[in-house]
Amino acid sequence: MLAATPALGRRRFVLAGAATVTGLLLPSQLRAAQQLVRTPGQTAGPFYPVQFPTDMDNDLVVVRGTEARAAGAVTHVVGRVLGTDGAPVANATVEIWQCDAHGRYLHPADRGGRARDSAFQGYGRTTSGTDGTYRFRTIRPVAYPGRTPHIHFAVKAPQGRELVTQMYVAGEPLNARDGVYAGIRDPRQREAVTVALAPGNGIENGALVGTFDIVL
Ligand SMILES: [Fe+2]
Q1: What are phi and psi of 27, to 5 degrees?
Q2: Ligand 1 centre distance from Cα of residue 9 (Å)
Q3: CA of 40 to the centre of ligand 1 (A)
Q4: How far is the CA of 172 from the centre of ligand 1 (A)?
Q5: 80 C-alpha to center of ligand 1: Å?
Q6: Distance 197 CA to ligand 1 centre (A)
Q7: pLDDT tens digits in sequence order for the chain, 216 residues long
């Protein structure tokens, strides 16, 4: 039947036999009993930094101490780190890295021949808050040969849970031809890493904003 267990200061409902007790549950209790879709793991690829930039905060558009601003469409990526039970994961380290607006990574092995945008930080790091939230200010990811636009993510939770994944942009025509993206077989998991970007005028005029919740 229905067992209520106190967990992290809130009551969590565990279903022992959904068919027999569904009629007894309020909608909010049903939601609590449902598991969130786990964010699928993805390859880190070859361009995780071998040397971190001197500035590695969560604003990749500006490198501290310089006036220049990265080329590309400024994009705020916000979200929460959550457990599959929906509980926020606080104090998780969240890292991102991506190529600049020219398609060039901050990495010596990127020999694509494209000039690097020195105003783009290339890598950033932050920590999730007590409610699991994190945020980055970066650029809208761009395509480079062989790949649809994506942002690499690495998440380390204090309890030892770790995830390396990639975030994609909803509506990108190249998504359909991207082998790494297609490697996510479960359509719900693919949806979980596909983020709609919309005008983020409430946050920053002219910028985009997307929400990417990461479920460990
Ligand atoms: Fe990549």
Answers
A1: -55, -40
A2: 39
A3: 16
A4: 15
A5: 22
A6: 19
A7: 344 444 443 434 343 334 444 456 666 666 556 799 999 999 999 999 998 988 999 999 999 999 999 999 999 999 999 999 999 999 999 999 999 999 999 999 998 888 999 999 999 999 999 999 999 999 999 999 999 999 999 999 998 999 999 999 999 999 999 999 999 999 999 999 999 999 988 899 999 999 999 999
